[in-house]
Write a structure and sequence with these properties.
The chain is mostly beta strands and 63 residues long. The protein contains one helix and three strands. It is elongated and about 45 Å long.
Length: 63
């Protein structure tokens, strides 16, 4: 088993409520590999007028 650490950027749309954010993040990270652990490192407001936020996530995946 090979472990890899990734720095992942993900747009958080306004349509995803805080209660569903965990499921949204996990669903996106599992597309990259088997998820071991993850954490949100930074949240920034996006420059667009829609109101989305940009999440910076550190994750460890098993490939």
């Amino acid at each position: 088993m090979k472990l890899s650490s990734i720095d992942y950027y993900l747009d958080w749309p306004v349509s995803i409520k805080l209660n569903n954010l965990r499921e949204f993040i996990i669903a996106n990270l599992e597309k990259k590999g088997d998820l071991i652990r993850w954490s949100i490192v930074d949240i920034q407001n996006s420059s667009d007028s829609v109101g989305t936020k940009k999440l910076r996530i550190k994750a460890v995946l098993a490939n």
